[in-house]
Amino acid sequence: MSTSYQHQKAGDLNFLKHLNRSAILEMVRRVPGLTRADIATQAQLTKATVGSGVQSLLQQGWLKEGDLQKSSGGRPGRALHLNDDRHYLLGAEVGVHRLRLVACAPSGRVLASHHEPYTPSTPEATAALLGGALQQLISSPEVSNRENLGLGVALPGPVATGEAILRRAPNLGWRDVHFLELLHPHLPELKGVWLMDNEAKSAAFGELYLRTGKTPESLLYVSAGTGIGSGMAEGSHSPLLTRGVQGLAGEIGHTILQPGGLYCHCGNRGCAETLVSGWSIRASLGIDEKNDLIQALAPRLQEPDVTRTLRRAGEALGMLLLNLHHTQNPAEIVLGGSLTQLGSTFLEPALTYFETHQQRLLGTTQRVPLRVVEDSTFVAARGAAAQVLARAIHGPSSQTAHQSPIP
Amino acid sequence: MSTSYQHQKAGDLNFLKHLNRSAILEMVRRVPGLTRADIATQAQLTKATVGSGVQSLLQQGWLKEGDLQKSSGGRPGRALHLNDDRHYLLGAEVGVHRLRLVACAPSGRVLASHHEPYTPSTPEATAALLGGALQQLISSPEVSNRENLGLGVALPGPVATGEAILRRAPNLGWRDVHFLELLHPHLPELKGVWLMDNEAKSAAFGELYLRTGKTPESLLYVSAGTGIGSGMAEGSHSPLLTRGVQGLAGEIGHTILQPGGLYCHCGNRGCAETLVSGWSIRASLGIDEKNDLIQALAPRLQEPDVTRTLRRAGEALGMLLLNLHHTQNPAEIVLGGSLTQLGSTFLEPALTYFETHQQRLLGTTQRVPLRVVEDSTFVAARGAAAQVLARAIHGPSSQTAHQSPIP
DNA sequence: CCACTAAGTAAATAGCTCGAACATAGTATT
DNA sequence: AATACTATGTTCGAGCTATTTACTTAGTGG
């Protein structure tokens, strides 16, 4: 369904203005302290155009002026910065075991956050719960005097491009859920951009978009938790996410790593998730759903069967990372999710496998940097907030995320 | 290297004009017979803007007017068509065993083609050979009275984004080759767009871009030949190709399918290419490099060891397709390359595996269509020509492919 | 104190799209 | 056959945006 007509973007004259305004805003956001002259040379615009663009962004409260830079022989330019005090963004993640909420400044700085245990229930009940928690977050003093730009929700399952529907979340037991529509009644006065996306994709977006300075041209986020998923964000201006028609892109948990291996809940055999995932580790070590996996394993990390299981899972993750490197070839890989807290018993085999097998194809050229997020609690929620920001800056024309058709 | 500055596209006023012109041209190319009114409604432009845009495209010889359409109650609109007689595009592929050349009309129709056996030699000698063959093709009567728009070359190895360098072609024995620079002296008078890209990516681009009517939102091309590679093209206007930083995206031949399996020439074990590729089939059946694989196997298709080898290879391909489905989730998959000529002994296991395992994740919703190209001889070369066309239409601003900085 | 250089601003100019009125080509109606 | 009707395509002036050019401003170095 959705758009059978192909959206051919042809430009209104106003569109050009917005394009230039948002380009200026992006540049300052990415490189704080740029001057008007810097922008003019980099964006190939004239000083006059940049001047008027900056002026309107200053008036709207998106930018603010800073100090004079030191002169390079002539009049020194005035530094421009993102105005980080005027707006805020809401991001939320419905995880399999926790609800996580953040309110962010445009820079990505977390103003207020909250997380609480969660046991999967119906979409309706979850919406009510999340709605209440968000209401509380909104009323906190850190954000109450700011203007809200919208809300992004990250969910543990595929969300197809152009639709605000969670197709399937096996670990929640959900199917074809219009989550934003369920959530809206609980936050009736919240205006702005409303969007939802897959958890790993939101995280990937945020990790790339909220970085300042030199940014990699693409970034792959691998989320290793109860299930295992990934998201790839590409491009500097407003990164594009690869979603796939059904939103299945990045469902690496169900790629086959071991032909003829164990049966997966998806029905196939030897899926990556049967080797590396929260549920497969629980299954092979006999840890109940009710107990927290990390806490349950923490005192047992020296036991031989635990070590062996974690090492095997780690190696499988390393293989998975290598395969991703050869199919997506991101400029940077970020590894997050609750399993990263298992520590080196699990991570070391993964990293070692990846490092040693990675560069055999191209020789000893540059390596793909791999970063492990130490605390990934709010990464996805913050990423969803970042998607809201990108939407707010670039307007609904950008195909960055999926807005809900809220009436 | 290349661009350390992030190319922030901010719009010149002229840019807007070109944007609208090329959007109009794309729409007519995709849906032949559109009227000005159709364009106006679909592109959200006014009749006046479309009118002037069409007029200038008519004058430049890109479009031509057709018949009046039947009236729907009022004045009938005049059909517009791509002018297929004025321009032509050159595409070439350096394969491991053949050189393939085409000259295409803007519609993708092949005007003239040529292929000849090739034995890998130095880049310089290959450039000379290809240059000569192209010269001959250009002088053929079908194209000699048309205007050339440029040349695209498809190569069997990774080409990184933004660089016109073939990083590595294991099956040719090449490394870090600036092929366009080598080719240029042999075609000094050939102006227009010069670009090069990976063979599977060119093919993917062409298969998506040259289609008319309703087009899938993304397309994955899997090229199974001496090696095995893939390319993913996305988007309707001018499709984007996923390349990855080092151009390794789609190097699925070196994803690990069988941990601890056979050693691959890349140094790792159990790569997909050890299970399904021209060279692995040759190795396991003892067929010499000098003989054509397809011809050598044709009379032996009933032999048990051949059947078993091909069935195993087919199943591995099916697994690979499934993994691609779960990492890239394209709207359509096209399977090409010389191995498709091995027929059902090889293809059936692949298709069956893919069909039966595909839809376990989302239930019985829509299936991803998989098409096998019967004759894929010129698919990559034609795809490279398509990349040239896209470049010519959208201008160098589009990040569609990699132009060489020819002086 | 004065040239010099580069950043930012102001006013005039050029160019594109838009809106509204108008001409055009068929069809349905009388 | 003449006329009303409807939707397509065109023309022309208005509005808006980016550019050009000239000018002001803020530091540096002699």
From TrEMBL, chains A, B:
GO function term, MF aspect, one: kinase activity
Pfam families recorded: ROK
TM ranges: none
InterPro entries: ATPase_NBD (IPR043129), ROK (IPR000600), WH-like_DNA-bd_sf (IPR036388), WH_DNA-bd_sf (IPR036390)
Protein keywords: Kinase, Transferase
Family to which this protein belongs: Belongs to the ROK (NagC/XylR) family.
Name of the protein in question: Sugar kinase of the NBD/HSP70 family, may contain an N-terminal HTH domain
Annotated organism of origin: Vreelandella subterranea
